[in-house]
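Batch manifest, entry 17 of 40.
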Amino acid sequence: MDLAEIEQLYLHRQSCRSFTGEDVPAELVKKLCSLALLAPSACNAQPWKLIAVTGEKRKAVAACVQGLGMNKFAGDAGAFVLVAEGKSNLTAKLGGRMKDTDFTPGDLGIVTAHLVLAADAAGISSCILGWRDEKKLRAALSLPEGTRIPYVVALGYAKEGDPVRPKKRKPTEETLISLM
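Output type: structure tokens
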């Protein structure tokens, strides 16, 4: 894969809010998760757990990410992947204390980005959902108390007529400092 192909992937991936409702096969979701788990992390801590939800359970997840008019489209997602906070390793914990930083949130963002890019490459649309009720998610999926779920990723097939939208980004000169 060359840089132009990567650029096309980045330009094509977008947040889908119009799914067909068709199931995403469990084996495909599992493959996307296994690819996402190749993501880098601070000190190789891999402080994440991906929880793949397909079939009937996805309706329970959809209910936990909707409310106050948010994420109505989630009911038509074909699958979900919950990005849960897992355990970090000792090196990352000590390094984080020494540098007064927590590497885990960044690592969770990286694995989530890898997931949605893998999905797009496989022809699966996605939307990263921050609006969620973690308590209800834990109850609906029988997860241990205290499980943190910073992101829920809706996966599915985009309805026809959901064209790739142009990216609206701040000008590069506002967000890139070049010291070359």
